[in-house]
Write a structure and sequence with these properties.
Receptor-associated Protein; single chain; mainly alpha; flat
Length: 310
């Protein structure tokens, strides 16, 4: 083979080898970039607030059950009483409007829960050999319970959320009062409270701040915040702020008075719960603790007496 052919073949081999090497390096770098971008997205998702993370990474229930339940909303609305939509919307606002749930999906969830529980109980009754009349009655009762179950869960979620808000309200008002008296404006003080605190009360203050930033008046935003909750302390605070804004009273003085009242109410609430403890403990004491104590103390003596008189 001539030297020119050897050179040409070697050159072709070098070109092919270089091309393959560069393509492998490019593929590896592309894979590394893809992996790096995925890791960055995961880290960013972990660093997001809870509400945004839930929106970007929905749960199985939100991805499957919630859209499927929306199909049965019309049937659930027909089976409900008049005004049920307004009551459910009110409970949703009290519960913080859980992401992915609205009134139609609640109605659909009621129908699904009724069909599921009723079907399961009916199938169990048929499989166990229960009489048809009893099976129909039990299935109807289970279906009725399933129909009201989403409302019960929504009410429970609202009660838990308001309990957290009631517990965090005095501390949030103290921080708001200190911020205003330190020279911050009301909007900046609300922003500080929303950032420094956690939980549903921080979400309410964040919503209040967003409404004021988009152009809603302070009085209207505070009035709407009070209407979204059934907590007496929060409604009283919002009403006092509305009156202070309308009458031109200094906000710092109003906040100081409201903060003092919140601390007094929290102490009174703690004392009230402490006074209820003896009454609540009376039932298990009489029914369970004292009989067990009598059995342990008097049992051996009773056995001895029985053996003696026998």
């Amino acid at each position: 083979m001539s030297p020119s052919m050897l050179l040409l073949g070697g050159g072709l081999l070098l070109v092919v080898g270089g091309t393959l090497g560069l393509s492998s390096i490019g593929a590896g770098s592309h894979e590394r970039r893809a992996v790096a971008s995925s890791l960055a997205a995961i880290r960013a998702l972990d660093g997001l607030p809870d509400d945004l993370a839930v929106d970007l990474d929905p749960s199985f229930v939100r991805r499957t059950v919630a859209p499927f339940a929306a199909r049965f909303s019309r049937l659930g609305h027909r089976l409900s009483r008049a005004g049920a939509a307004e009551r459910i919307q009110r409970r949703l606002e009290i519960a913080g409007v859980p992401s992915g749930w609205d009134v139609p999906r609640i109605f659909g969830a009621k129908v699904l829960a009724a069909a599921l529980l009723g079907g399961l109980v009916g199938f169990y009754c048929v499989a166990s050999g229960t009489s048809p009349v009893r099976a129909v009655v039990l299935a109807a009762l289970a279906g009725g319970f399933g129909f009201v179950l989403p409302t019960i869960l929504l009410y429970n979620a609202g009660e838990k959320r308001e309990a957290l808000m009631r517990r965090a309200l005095p501390d949030a008002l103290d921080l708001l009062t200190i911020s205003v008296e330190a020279g911050l404006g009301f909007d900046a003080a609300v922003m500080k409270v929303a950032r420094r605190t956690r939980g549903p009360l921080a979400q309410e203050f964040s919503r209040l701040l967003q409404e004021m930033q988009i152009g809603v008046g302070r009085s209207d935003a505070m009035r709407a915040m009070g209407e979204r909750s059934t907590i007496k302390e929060l409604r009283s605070f919002c009403q006092a702020m509305v009156q202070a804004d309308q009458l031109g009273v200094p906000i710092g003085r109003v906040l100081r008075i409201q903060s003092k009242e919140m601390r007094i109410r929290r102490r009174q609430s703690a004392e009230e719960r402490a006074q209820k403890v003896p009454v609540k403990i009376m039932v298990p004491l009489v029914l369970f603790i004292l009989p067990s104590l009598f059995i342990v103390v008097m049992g051996p003596a009773a056995i001895k007496m029985v053996e003696t008189f026998r």
